[in-house]
Batch of 4 targets.
Target 1
Amino acid sequence: MDDLFADHDASLGRSEVLAEGARVLRGRAHARAAEFLELIDGVSAQAPFRNMTTPGGYPMSVDMSCCGRLGWVSDERGYRYSVTDPQTGRAWPAMPELLRGFAIACAAEAGFPDFSPDACLINRYRPGAKLSLHQDRDEPDLSAPIVSVSLGLPATFLFGGLRRSDPQQRVGLVHGDVVVWGGPARLRFHAVLPVREGEHPLTGRYRINLTFRKASRT
Ligand code: MD3
Ligand code: FE
């Protein structure tokens, strides 16, 4: 049995379809979470967490880092993917193979068999941090899905429609949950409500979310 899914029995059948193209794989990252967090520590030792600035000039409340060939960057000039970390002037740390393989397996399970991520954005939320309503549309190949892994403190995720004003469904995401969204759900608006105060045995006062993306055309 594929040991990337060592907790398969515990999470068997706990897959929810949020909309066509969007699925939550409950608990799928639970068994490997401690290893994943070690790998994230390694990445952030080379590419430290930082509060990026929005194009409007405001600091984001979420601390971010990246790994993979490309990293997501925001500043007064706008949003884009870059092969260098503007803070260090160096390439982003490599995407750890264990993480990349896990994301590919989750995408395949959700119906996207050819996922080849080259960017992983690491979002770190302290209590009070949030992500406002947005679409992920900086990637040139929108046929590729995005895979999200939630670790640490829980959060409430808002899942909207293709227009900013569309109604939103609330989805609770806890430690170990994975969300895969692509196809007709790829451009849906979404947000994360302010993370509530709490303490998690593996992350302390943080929620960590990984998003695996294909950020280049080829
Ligand atoms: C999108 N991150 O980094 S990912 C982002 O939890 C981002 O840090 C969030 O949005 C985070 O751009 C959310 C989870 C997610 C789940 C379901 C979705 C995003 C989705 C459904 C449709 C569109
Ligand atoms: Fe997003």
Note: The longest helix spans residues 33-46.
Target 2
Amino acid sequence: MCGIIGYTGIGNAVPKITKGLSVLEYRGYDSVGLAAKTDTGIKTVKCKGRIGALEEKLEASPIKESGTAIGHTRWATHGGPSDTNAHPHSVGKTVLVHNGIIENYRELKSELEATGVTFVSETDTEVAAAVLNGEYERVGDPISAIRTATSRMTGSYAFGILFSDKDGEVFAIRSGSPLILAKGADGYYLASDMTALLPFTNEYYCLVEGELARLTPNGATVYSADNTPSEPAWSVTSMTAESAQKGGYPHFMLKEIYEQPEAVVKSVSPRVKKGQPDFSADGIDAEFWKKVKNIQIVACGSAMHAGLVGIRLLEDIAKVPTVSCIASEYRYHPPIATDGTLVIVISQSGETADTLAALRYATDAGLPTLAIVNAVETTIAREADKRIYTYAGPEIAVATTKGYCTQVSVLYMIAAAISKAKGLIDDTEAAALVKGITEDAPKAISDMLENVEMLRGLSERLAKKEHVFFIGRGTDYAMSEEGALKLKEISYIHAEAYAAGELKHGTISLIEEDTPVIAISTEEALYDKTESNVREVRSRGAYVILLCREDAKNAEASADAVIRLPVNSAAATLFASLTAVQVLAYETATLRGCDIDRPRNLAKSVTVE
Ligand code: F6R
């Protein structure tokens, strides 16, 4: 999704902006641009395409040294990808970059057109620039112009702004979309995303909703909603530029798959005390868990799939009725809440607009909320009543792997904590669950990664196909959903997940000679039934890859290929199956020559509804 970077200081701004833009690439974008303040005014260079195209333009027409600039990667919403629709947008003295959507831009545009203003692009952002420029021309003061202009806008925005008559000054404001300020050795920065700042500094400040900022080479000032100025309360991040680099792997996705064992350990071990589940470091005690009578998990995409696995864990281990809802649907038909309902929102980025809107809906409905979030200090983490961070580190590949993996691991620990708090399990049983997730699961992931050659071999078959089915029962159906999403988003193969027993009610008509079916069977009690479904599709010509427990009988006779999963604990079996489907997707997409870390049309942090 769109990305913002800005800088003002004693350094050369343009190389810093292009560096920041190249870090932001992972978010997904289709055009790119920058505007730099020079002795002769603001120079804007922008184009459809990737950073390479922008750099060619800059080489052909270099911007002489500039100390102040803003840049943007655009993921098209209003108007297709084009040079003209790319940001920054300039109107009069105002130049701005924008993340988010101005929902009332049509009304604002009509008003302005009636006064003779003309527009060159199809974007809502150019309208925002025109509204702001009108105010700036009227009042001459940037702070009050920005306040008045944004008060006329509905929707979401993070703006980075230059005014042609304000040397060395960058302005910023946010509402609904994130913005972070940073303090470096040679100046001050602005970005939509912490990772874009890591090459320059680790001192940062997250702008709060409605705050406005003014950066100069000598300092940063934050203006609260009532325009009271203050110096930002800088924090230091432990993230490093290296943690956001590939570190020798061909793709971030592969690196992130390999980081999963460590990410799981980092995410769950702070929630263990004396071998027992314990969330006291997150401000959550046994009394809190005891009061939970039912859970609504709300999230998007893979995070929602983590919720599907969460249903099984929370219902089986903690006996708490649970639903997992698609966040974008939650507001239209929320499940009925009762006394004791807890809403858990899950988000890797902490900024997903649909999830945030659902969280706000739940808050307005007076429901207690708990966020499971990876990116610290993000809007979702801040707005939820309680938060549990997954410590997966920066996730750069658009397709989530370690983010999802750590979400499931934390849900596992929550299920154990609730079960223990309610007295459903004793210390020994709780310790066994804890060991499963803190020790067996990370080991199972590492062990599965020893089988990459075998998985690559199976992927050769998948890579030639246009349709693949995933089937499973119970938790394995939830995992099938994630396996199918992973495969389709990065390899562009049409992949669908079905509850294994459901195929024969219609979809089995699509099975023909050599159709790949990936069957997941990690639950001993369900093995025989899933195996019957495997035989049904195989006898109709399907090529079946069966992921099953290492003690499963007759697997080789039922399927064309078998991937054996460890059985020392349920967590080990579950996480080994996850790793296998992730690697199958990765290898298949590699064989098809896909842009794995930046699949077409997708964005990392989806900050529009
Ligand atoms: C799929 C994927 C997406 C995200 C979804 C939610 O690989 O990454 O489906 O899971 O967009 O994103 P977050 O977790 O950032 O809220």
Note: Residues 246-449 form a domain with the Rossmann fold fold (CATH 3.40.50.10490).
Target 3
Amino acid sequence: MTYRMQLTRVACALAGALALAAGPAFAQAKVKVGFMLPYTGTYAALGNAITNGFKLAIAENGGKLGGRDIEYFTVDDESDPAKAPENVNKLIKRDQVDVVVGTVHSGVAMAMAKAARDNNTLLIIPNAGEDSITGAMCAPNIFRTSFTNSAPGYAMGKVAADKGYKRVVTLTWKYAAGEQSVGGFKEAFEKGGGKVIKEMTLPFPNVEFQPFLTEIAALKPDAVYVFFAGGGAVKLVKDYDAAGLRKTIPLLGPGFLTDGTLEAQGAAADGLLTTLHYADQLDNPKNNAFRAAYKKAYNVEPDVYAMQGYDAGQLLAAGTKAVGGDMSKRDALVKAMHGAKLDSPRGPFSLSRANNPIQDYYLRQVVGKQNKAIGVAIKGYEDPARGCKM
Ligand code: PHB
């Protein structure tokens, strides 16, 4: 045997010994994570923040899930419900991912939830609030780290009634998120003695707000409640201010109106009141650490979307840890995820029977470039999960 052959033998023996010592993980394939998020269009910044937040949680977990390396697959869903069934099938059927993480838009998320149910795919929703996904469509393999659309609206309806407002006009994109947000607002506001005098809508993702602002000026309501997010929220807040309405008719909304948007909105957002399950300066150790780490990694301030993506990563890390990275142990995996108590930047939370966060909703005010918590609108809110059987 030549010296070279001897060397090769030694190397092979060493590699074998190492593989044995490392146990099964050594030979294991990577955990396949499929992101289906908007990377273009009015919600593009939201998709990017979620991706960044998720990857930060994974980095803090040693870059692994349940001890295994990760392979990412990415689909830009463009916030287009018409393309959603095909897009989600790319991840489920073509790429055969172990878990799908997405999305932002409720209409797209509906198609994803349906596909997750049909194929028994693990799905973690890091934003889209479509109420029915953790209602009648609930399933053990479907999780959400964000909210139901009606919840922040409900919280603001209570705040508006408590402020003594009587006549309110609503304005939103006409699709599930806006409609359910307005529905939640209306329920609490009218229960508290107010009246929604007019519900205005425009198609998603249109931003021709002028005719609506003219009508609002003529109607002179006590306040206006709107649902917009991302690029659309930036434009609405600027147009509302430019129309001279900000100081005369209070503009209210769920926190999406001013989250991740303040740099672009500038002084037009000054003083706005919103309700959300997160605020920039929540003074808990986890939030302080999260904000510092996110800023360091990406050189921008995190927002609610980054936080929800981060918690999607934390939730998956908790589940995969419980099964040592063995994704075939599905029952144990989802049981661990369902029972997880996450130390979140929003504050610790657990999941409802329908796998939706049980959490506080804060009243926030825009001060400078921050959404500052100025009170708790609703403590420990649990969505009723109407129609959920599990
Ligand atoms: C949704 O479509 O569910 C949605 C989108 C953006 C948000 C919140 C909810 O900021």
Note: Residues 104-106, 127-130, 149, 177, 229, 256 surround P-hydroxybenzoic acid (CB under 6 Å).
Target 4
Amino acid sequence: MEKKWWHNSVVYQIYPRSFMDSNGDGIGDLKGIIEKLDYLKLLGIDVIWLSPVYKSPNDDNGYDISDYCDIMEEFGTMNDMDELINEANNRGIKIVMDLVVNHTSDEHNWFVESRKSKDNPYRDYYVWRDPVDGKEPNDIPSVFSGSAWEYDELSGQYFLHLFSKRQPDLNWENPKVHEEVYNMMNFWLDKGIGGFRMDVIDLIGKLPDQEITANGPKLHDYLQEMNKKTFGNRDVLTVGETWGATPEIAKLYSDPDRHELSMIFQFEHILLDQQEGKEKWDLKPLNLLELKEVFNKWQTQLDGKAWNSLFWNNHDLPRIVSRWGNDTEYRKESAKMLATLLHVMQGTPYIYQGEEIGMTNIQFEKIEEYDDIETKNMYKDRISKEYKHEDIMESIYAKGRDNARTPMQWSGEIHGGFTKGQPWLMVNSNYKEINVEESVNDPDSIFNHYRQLIELRKKLPVIVYGSFEMLAENDDKIFAYTRELNGEKLLVVANFTKENAEFSYNRGVHEVSILLSNYKNSSFSIENLSLRPFEAIVYKI
Ligand code: NOJ
């Protein structure tokens, strides 16, 4: 595979609303991000994925855009944005923008026009259909509960919204929509950004009349056209959000010969703790054997053919240390264990803000304290279906998106140093113990572990390009694998549990050194290892 700069890069995701507030209005902003660039430089990341900063009425916190070429007032101005791009570039950090083009806000001018009448020039920018038997055209559900069709009195037709009813879906069967989107993308590329993260990009090829939403037949034609007309001749990173991808589908997107995207986010590992065929709120414990099988599949099947992204977290997912680690007794050990497993695999690692200091999930007592539209809609929907309040709250505690959205914990000061005002969402009360200041100063912190993992990736091509072999596939406590490139070999062994666990590597006698561990005095005897709770070791053998 041709080498690319993003093969050995590490990406850091910022959710601007919760990152750093510079002006005391309780909402994070662009100037706040600029203030913290040196912190990100210290961590060692190369790229920032910025969740949406465009003008938006915030029905879905910026994923409902009313003007793609303007900045959300609470976040600052276009001048601030230009400054952020420059200041980041000065530090060797690229800014990847969030591209949300499956839908817009209902306040976007295109939709305001489209809604006016059936013969408005913008009518076909969106998906309008007549009622069928006086009802919704069909049964497509919205991801945020209820039907994906909303009736509009004015014209007597329904419009499609796969997310909230304030996020109408663009009609990608209309070539004019393509042109508008490509012009907008070039506007941003001309500013010197480092690429795009593409929101639910697998939905743009939808055929609503056939109830096909993901992976529609024209999807890849559209992406090849987009590539050609926008970023194809620029050296940028593009990553598509694709919930239903298999390795075969991933290769369609990111085989370099097909000229589509650099990589995708696949979610197969993320879906393992929900009941099959049900919703994410229908919980089931993680089975480690399944987790290993999924990683094994992706690591081996894309090798040399396409590129993986590596992540545990983002702004839609619960905090990994609370989810599959241990956020009480072994918070530091388990956060480092999870980081180690992911960061020594092949692919581009993504760190979500706060993950690098081991931030944890939140539990609000009342549903009114939550902000997230998905959470609130689901609560209403399940209450109306007679689920018990306690059961719904349990799902929200485990999976709600606000787990990831509480403000960044910078210090032990009031509101975790995030704002001098009243934060838009409550700060997790553990900020006195878990914060950046404490983490940066403690050589044994989770932060410093992430730093070392990033340094290792920069130093060792075997981490970037080595082949992957899963070990101990049937062991339900141990996650272990090797990486190998040109005779250089790494062995990663992790105990995924809070009990001691045994592991042995019996492929001849080896000279062994330890590159990184989350415990002091880890053992060198790989033929006969006893691992402490959540112990994770990277050996060079
Ligand atoms: C995926 C985004 O990550 C999520 O936050 C958003 O609500 C939906 N797409 C709709 O844009």
Note: DSSP finds 16 helices and 20 strands in the chain.
